[in-house]
Amino acid sequence: MTQAALEHENKLIAQEYKELLRISYQTLTDDDKKLIRSAFEVAVDAHKEQRRKSGEAYVFHPIAVAKIVASEIGLDAVSIASALLHDVVEDTPYTLDDIDRMFGETVARIVDGLTKISHLKKDMNISQQAENFRKMLLTLNDDVRVIIIKIADRYHNMLTMDSMPEHKQVKIASETLYIYAPLAHRIGLYNIKTELEDLSLKYTEPEVYYDIKSKIEESKEEQQAYIDAFSDIIDNSLKQEGLNYYIKGRMKSIFSMRRKMKTQNVGFDEIYDKFAIRIIYKSDAKNEKFLAWKIYSIVTDHFTPNPVRLRDWISSPKSTGYEALHITVMGPKGKWVEVQIRSERMHEIAEKGYAAHFKYKHGDQKEQGIEVWLNKLQEALENSNSNAVDFVEEFKLNLYSKEIFVFTPKGELKSLPKGATPLDFSFNIHTEVGMRTRGAKVNGKLVPLNTTLHSGDQVEIITSEQAKPNQNWLDYATTARARAKIKSVLREEKKSVAEEGKEILRRKLKSQKITLNEDSINKMVTFFKLKTSLDLFYRVGIGSIDNQMIRDFASSYSNAFISFFKNRIRRTPAPEDIDKEEITSKYDLLVFGKEEEKLDYKLSQCCNPIPGDDVFGFVSVSEGIKVHKKNCPNAISLQSNYAYRIISAKWVDSTQEEFKADIQLTGIDNLGLVSEITEVISDNMHVNMRNLNFSTDGGTFTGRITVVVKNKGILNKLTENLQQINGIDKVTRL
C-alpha cells in the first residue's frame, strides 16, 4: 500500500473517531472520553496488520460496531469502549489480562464474554448450534451488554456481507433470523431487529427480497400523497388545540410484508396495512397521557376507528418498555391505516430500546433502571438445565409471543405471554407459589389449571402445603420458566423414588442370593433394555419391574454357565453412560385426547412421525386415526379445514404410564364405610381417585371407584386392603 493511501486511511480512521464521539446518544463526561480514546488507540494498534475481506483496514469494523452501540442503541462509555475492543483478545497479541489492567474489570468481563461467543464453533448441526446459543445466552449472567454488543457486531457483519461466498451468507443470515433478530426484539431494539430481518431475507430469499423492495420503491410517491391527504384532514384540528407535533409515515419492513404474504396467502397488492402513520408530539411528563388521548379523539372525529384494533400501550407498557397508542382507522380512499400516537420520549424508547428509557431518569434511578431491565432478561434465560434445543426453542417461544395482561387479586398488573394458563401465572408470581398450586380462580370462578387466560382476567391462585407438581403440569404450563421449574421438581421426585427402588432391589436380589453391585446392575439394565441405572431403580420403585421380572432376571443371571455360552453367541454390549444422573423416557406409546385413551392408529406416510415427536391425530374417513407431526406440511390445511376431526395425541413412556382401573365393591351398608374406603385408597396407599359412585339398597351397598395406578401390583394390593374392611363382601376389577 502506498504512503499516500496509508495517510488517507489514517485520516479516515481519525474522522471516524470524531464522528463516534459526536453521535453518542448518552452525554459523555471527560472521563468517558478518555476511556473511549484509549480503547480506540488500543484497537487501532492491535488490528494494524489486519484487513477485512473487502480489503479495507480491519479497525473500521470495531469502530462501526461502536458507532452502532453509541448512537443506534445509545449505550454508555463502557459499552462503547468494549465494542471497540471486542475482537482484540481473539485476533491479536493482546490478552484479557492486558485489557483488565488497562480498562478495568467490567470492560474485561464484557470483552471476555464476546470472545467466548465468537469461539463457539460455527459448522455444526442444529443441536450443536443450539448449544452455542445457549452458552451465549448464559453469558448474560455476566453482563447483558455482551449480548447487545454482539447484536451490533452481527448487524455490522450483515451490512458488509457482500464480499463473502454465498454459502456463508446464507448460513449467517439464517442464524441471524434464528436467534439475533428475536434477541434484538426481546431487548426492545425494534429498529435493529427490523434491519436484521430484512438483511437476512436479502440473502436467504434474494428474489423475493428484491421483488418486494422494488414494489415498495414504486409506491413511494403514492404513499407520500396518501400521508399528505391524511395529514391535511386532521392538521387544522390539531393546530387549533395548540399541539406541537409532526406526522411521519413508516413503511412496514420487507420481512414483515413477506411474512404477511405467506401467512395470509396474498400478493403484495392485497396487503391492506402496508404502512403506518405516526403522530409524534412534544409534551412534558405531566400531560403526556392526556395529550395522547386528546390526539386520539381528534383522529377518530375525522376517521372511523376499527374498534377491535385499539392497542393501548400507554396505560400498560410492554415488558420491553414500549409505550404508544395504536389505532386502525378507515383513512382517505377507504383504506385501513394504522395510526401510532406517541410522545417524543415514547418515540425515543421505541427507536432505542431501554437506553432511552433511563435517559429521562437521573443518578441512582438511572443505574437501577438498567438493573431492573437486566433482571427481566435474566428471567427468560434463568433455567439452563434443559437440553439445548428445547432451551433455544422455549427461549424463542418467550421472545416472539404476544403479551396478555392479567390482574392479581389485589389488582396488580402482570404481563404473560399469549396462551398462558393459571399455572404460568402462579410461577410468574413466585416459584414457591407455583410449586404449591392447588387450584385457581379466574374472575372469581374455579377453573382447571390448563384454562387459557385472556387479557383483563383477574387470577387468584389457591395454594396448599400438600400440593406438588405432577407430570400433567407439563401439559398445562406454557412459559419456559414454569416448565423448567416443574421439570426440575419432577426430576428430583423421580430420583427419590429411584433411591427407594434401589433399596427394594437390594433386598429382592439378596433373597435370590445375588449382590447388588456394578456387574449385576449393568446386566439388569441390559436385561430390561433400559438406558441408565437410575432408570432401573426408578422402575423398581414404581413397581413396573415387579417380583416376577426380577426372578426371571435372577434365574438367567444365576445360570452363569448357560448364559456364558449364550453370550458367546450374541454379545450384548452394556450401554454407555449407564451411571448418568437421569431417568430417561422410552417413548413407545401413543395416547389420545384429554383422557389419554389408547386407540388404534396409523402413522401417516407424509411426515413419518417417530416416538417422542409432537403429534396430533386426524380422524380420517376410511383409515381410522392417522397420526401426523405437528409441523407436517399438511398439518395446517388439515387443522384449518377439518378442525372438528383433530384429536390431540402425545407419546408417553409405557413403563412410567399410569392407567385407570374401575373397581366394584359390594357389601353391607354401615355408618362411616365410605370414609373408611377412601381412607384406605387416598391416605394409606396414596392412590388417586377420579370417580366415586355409591348406592345403597335395602341395607346392602354397591360402589364403583375409578382409580389411577402405576401398575397391576399396586392395584392388587389395593383390592386386598379394601377386602379387609369390615362389611365389605366382594371387591372386583371391572
UniProtKB/TrEMBL annotation:
One of its GO terms (molecular function) is hydrolase activity. This is Bifunctional (P)ppGpp synthetase/guanosine-3',5'-bis(Diphosphate) 3'-pyrophosphohydrolase. Belongs to the relA/spoT family. InterPro entries: ACT-like_dom_sf, ACT_dom, Beta-grasp_dom_sf, HD/PDEase_dom, NT_sf, RelA/Spo_fam, RelA/SpoT_AH_RIS, RelA_SpoT. It comes from Maribacter aurantiacus. GO terms for biological process: guanosine tetraphosphate metabolic process. Keywords: Hydrolase. Residues 402-463 form the TGS domain. The keyword Hydrolase applies. It comes from the Bacteria. Pfam families: ACT_4, HD_4, RelA_AH_RIS, RelA_SpoT, TGS. Transmembrane segments: none annotated. In eubacteria ppGpp (guanosine 3'-diphosphate 5'-diphosphate) is a mediator of the stringent response that coordinates a variety of cellular activities in response to changes in nutritional abundance. The keyword Hydrolase applies.
